[in-house]
């Protein structure tokens, strides 16, 4: 088909006015120009859309059918233009967000609720992803923003300290040390440990092992779990002790005692990370809101 939007818009105007002069005036063109466009449109469509006499212009049945579809097409186009402009302005869009355990058990849910109220037409697609896999996903552009342990120190990536947690000890409620109000990490040196597996907890293990080495010991790992729930369950069952982030206090866990570690000053920092330069306007809106309204740690 050779006709374009100009032909369709002129057709709709003529269908509304049923008068070439008035339709041409609304289209800001000459009457002969309007007549030529309608004639070309009818030739492309292959059927008469108007019945003309020297005094009247009326729609044919084919013209009535074409009018209904033309109005819908123009309305859809207007919506498309509006959506494109709002997307470019960061008002609508989709954000793919990766998160790990400490983020979702900490401040992240409250922040995401706040952002969704601020920009309800930006859809958030959330996926649980351990830190190292988040970094891979960011580099491969499978996610837009990741909430991970520590900054992502890679060229073309920006990190923002979003939240932090202290290290805390998790003990079975029946453990002899469960009655001690404040522990030292060194008190756990000879204890069997339950930790997250290297595959899913690699970033945490690296940070935790460094803390243990400074305390003068290497943890003796007797059980591993792939998830926080698995860690909690094994500790509650008496398999060993564990060390976790202080956001665990936001959860209700039976059979576990949580204790501060008085000799550990290190923090477990949750960082938001994203690629730069930013190409998706929704990422700009999200990160600017995070810095301006929510604030970091």
Report on this model:
The protein has helices at 5-17, 20-26, 31-45, 61-88, 101-104, 108-118, 131-139, 198-214, 228-236, 281-294, and strands at 50-52, 57-59, 93-99, 122-128, 145-149, 157-172, 182-183, 192-196, 220-225, 242-245, 256-261, 267-275. With 297 residues, the protein is an alpha/beta fold. The chain has two domains: 5-88, Winged helix-like DNA-binding domain superfamily/Winged helix DNA-binding domain (Arc Repressor Mutant, subunit A); 93-297, D-Maltodextrin-Binding Protein, domain 2 (3-Layer(aba) Sandwich). Strands 3, 4, 5, 6, 7, 10, 11 and 12 form an eight-stranded mixed β-sheet that branches. It starts with a helix and ends with a helix. The model has no long low-confidence stretch (mean pLDDT 91). Keywords: DNA-binding, Transcription, Transcription regulation. One of its GO terms (cellular component) is protein-DNA complex. GO terms for molecular function: DNA binding; DNA-binding transcription factor activity.
Brief summary:
This protein is an alpha/beta fold and 297 residues long.
In the predicted model, the low-confidence regions spanning at least 5 consecutive residues are none
Number of strands: 12
Tell me about the largest β-sheet.
8 strands, mixed
Number of domains: 2
The CATH architecture name of the largest domain reads 3-Layer(aba) Sandwich
Q: If you compute it from the alpha carbons, what radius of gyration comes out, rounded to the nearest whole angstrom?
A: 32 Å
- Count, helices: 10
Family: Belongs to the LysR transcriptional regulatory family.
Domain HTH lysR-type: 3-60
Protein name: DNA-binding transcriptional LysR family regulator
InterPro entries: LysR_HTH_N, LysR_subst-bd, WH-like_DNA-bd_sf, WH_DNA-bd_sf
């Amino acid at each position: 088909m050779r006709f374009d939007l100009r032909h369709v818009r002129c057709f709709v105007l003529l269908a509304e006015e049923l008068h070439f002069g008035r339709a041409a005036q609304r289209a800001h063109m000459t009457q002969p120009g309007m007549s030529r466009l309608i004639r070309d449109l009818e030739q492309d469509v292959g059927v008469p859309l108007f019945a003309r006499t020297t005094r009247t212009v009326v729609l044919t049945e084919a013209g009535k059918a074409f009018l209904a579809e033309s109005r819908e097409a123009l309305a859809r186009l207007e919506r498309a233009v509006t959506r494109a402009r709002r997307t470019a302005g960061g008002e609508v869009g989709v954000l793919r967000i990766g998160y790990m355990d400490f983020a979702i058990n900490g401040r992240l849910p409250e922040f995401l609720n706040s952002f969704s109220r601020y920009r309800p037409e930006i859809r958030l697609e959330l996926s649980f992803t351990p830190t190292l896999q988040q970094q891979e996903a960011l580099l491969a552009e499978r996610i837009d923003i990741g909430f991970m342990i520590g900054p992502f120190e890679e060229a073309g990536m920006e990190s923002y300290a979003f939240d932090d947690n202290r290290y805390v000890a998790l003990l079975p409620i029946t453990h002899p040390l469960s009655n001690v109000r404040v522990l030292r990490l060194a008190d756990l040196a000879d204890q069997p440990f339950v930790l997250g597996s290297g595959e899913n907890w690699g970033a945490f293990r690296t940070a935790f092992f460094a803390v243990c080495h400074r305390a003068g010991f290497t943890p003796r790992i007797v059980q591993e779990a792939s998830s926080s729930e698995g860690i909690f369950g094994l500790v509650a069952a008496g398999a060993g002790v564990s060390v976790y982030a202080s956001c665990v206090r936001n959860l209700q866990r039976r059979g576990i005692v949580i204790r501060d570690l008085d000799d550990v000053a290190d923090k477990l920092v949750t960082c938001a990370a994203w690629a730069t330069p930013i190409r998706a306007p929704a990422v700009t809106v999200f990160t600017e809101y995070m810095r301006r309204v929510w604030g970091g740690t």
